[in-house]
Design brief:
By secondary structure, the chain is α+β, with helices and mostly antiparallel strands. It has one domain: Sufe protein. Chain: A (Alpha-Beta Complex), CATH 3.90.1010.10. Helices cover 38% and strands 16% of the residues. Strand 2 and strand 3 form a beta hairpin.
């Protein structure tokens, strides 16, 4: 009787299997630096009239960012900035970089900061641009909150 099992013998595979492509992209050193050593992490007292709080999130990925500013009422200069972010390394790095960028700026200048500036500085890939957009949205929300406490109209929409 003829049997397939005994009639055919398969030679062992002698060709090496192709190596899999890397499944992850490595982060830029600036992202790693801000992720491993984030600047200005913490909170400010949101009940103070000179503190503005911006809370934003990205439903698509689950990143949540809270950014707070303390403004000198006389000069309009951001004297202190704090953040807390729950999200990926790029989101944390974007928050950290934003705090360094806007500290010492006037609220008018801080409202002009664009996500492209953050993305360029941190060399974010296109799939992580939403992280820099969150940081831009957070500073604008914090400025809006601060102005609402001062009974000042929000003029950030006029800057676009």
């Amino acid at each position: 009787m003829f049997s397939l099992r005994t009639s055919f013998r398969f030679a062992p595979r002698t060709l090496p299997l192709p190596l899999p492509l890397p499944l992850t992209r490595s982060y830029h050193p600036k992202v790693i630096d801000h992720y491993t050593h984030p600047r200005n992490v913490g909170t400010l007292d949101k009940t103070q009239s000179n503190v503005g709080t911006g809370l934003v999130g990205a439903p698509a990925c689950g990143d949540v960012m809270r950014l707070q500013i303390r403004v000198n009422d006389a000069t309009g200069v951001i004297e202190d900035v704090k953040f807390k972010t729950f999200g990926c390394g790029s989101a944390i790095a974007s928050s950290s970089y934003m705090t360094e960028l806007v500290q010492g700026m006037t609220i008018q200048d801080a409202a002009k900061v664009k996500n492209t500036e953050i993305a360029r500085e941190l060399s974010l890939p296109p799939v992580k641009l939403h992280c820099s957009m969150l940081a831009e949205d957070a500073i604008k929300a914090a400025i809006k909150d601060y102005k609402s406490k001062q009974n000042r109209p929000d003029t950030s929409a006029l800057l676009k």
